[in-house]
């Protein structure tokens, strides 16, 4: 009998990490060790659907803790490390960049060093099959104008403390491959949305403010463009890459769903008008209110994901409209999940205006 595959997921209590863990338990035979420090962004209740599964284990630990990382790697003996733990919110990086350097740069370095030590102790066939998968963002490439797409060849040009710290981590991962031979793969993904998304991010924030009858704050004229991807489509792409991607390569992941922020907000309003109309019959769009733009707000991100499609056969299952409807229905059905967060760490206030 072959041994079950073991995957160590960092940041598995976050938005995308928890979606990956839920998918791995639901759709594969992997044993999963979730390593997460449970910062404000980590939420164990996002793992309730898998918590009792014998193939799932949770360990509260910080990726900057070299001793803990070495111990967890030695005990669990993973075939794959997928690295999602990060400080991830641009507005928070403007108000407090230090935590981004600490976790995204120093933390990634610490995890890489521990992983290299562990990998060097494996048998040659295990070394060849091992993967360190680094999850990154399209924001490392800076901003686009009206035309063009980011590809794997696009030069790095980060503009915010968040994207600069992620760019730094991407370079470290690449260096650990070229210098030490660690079999790494990297993915750079566009904006995700979906269930269990922390309520300070654009899409859940707008859904929740719609329901509360509060103004919907749109930055500037709402003209900034993002390429939106439903989170389950992202985690399927992650699986395709750590199972089939070539070591040393990076893969762009995107939904081919470019929308301006104003279109995103209008789509949420129209969907809610249809499935949960306001008591007074007015459209939720009447709550839209324009606010001063974020400092250094990148104009447009767009992804060309052809390499991932051509090499590994991945395509997104959701359109933006089908994914938004699923997301809205999840927020309507799971009010307890986000009310708990709103009553604790985060009160829906505006962040990222201190520049
Ligand atoms: N959300 C997006 O749209 C998006 C798009 C592309 C790439 N990414 C990348 O995907 C990854 C996951 O993003 P997300 O949106 O799920 O983030 P998130 O903020 O929801 O989750 C991050 C998780 O990492 C944990 N964490 C933070 N610092 C840690 C530390 N020092 N040690 C251990 N755990 C720590 C947090 O507790 C949290 O559970 C990030 O690396 C992010 O850069 C996100």
Automatic annotation (TrEMBL):
Keywords attached to this entry: Lyase, Membrane, NAD, Transmembrane, Transmembrane helix
Key word Transmembrane helix present in the record? yes
Q: Which domain of life is it from?
A: Bacteria
Start and end of every NAD(P)-binding domain?
8-327
List the catalytic activities from the record: dTDP-alpha-D-glucose = dTDP-4-dehydro-6-deoxy-alpha-D-glucose + H2O
Q: Which residues cross the membrane?
A: 7-25
Name the enzyme group at the top EC level: lyase
Its Enzyme Commission number(s) read 4.2.1.46
One GO MF term, please? dTDP-glucose 4,6-dehydratase activity
Q: Entry's CDD domains? A: dTDP_GD_SDR_e
Give me any GO biological process, just one: nucleotide-sugar metabolic process
InterPro entries from the UniProt entry: dTDP_Gluc_deHydtase, NAD(P)-bd_dom, NAD(P)-bd_dom_sf
Needed cofactors: NAD(+)
Q: Name one Pfam family in it.
A: GDP_Man_Dehyd
- Would I find NAD among this entry's keywords? yes
Q: Name the protein family.
A: Belongs to the NAD(P)-dependent epimerase/dehydratase family. dTDP-glucose dehydratase subfamily.
Record PANTHER family: DTDP-D-GLUCOSE 4,6-DEHYDRATASE-RELATED
**What protein name applies here?**
dTDP-glucose 4,6-dehydratase
At the highest ranks, the source species' classification is: Bacteria, Pseudomonadati, Pseudomonadota, Alphaproteobacteria, Sphingomonadales
The coding gene here is: rfbB
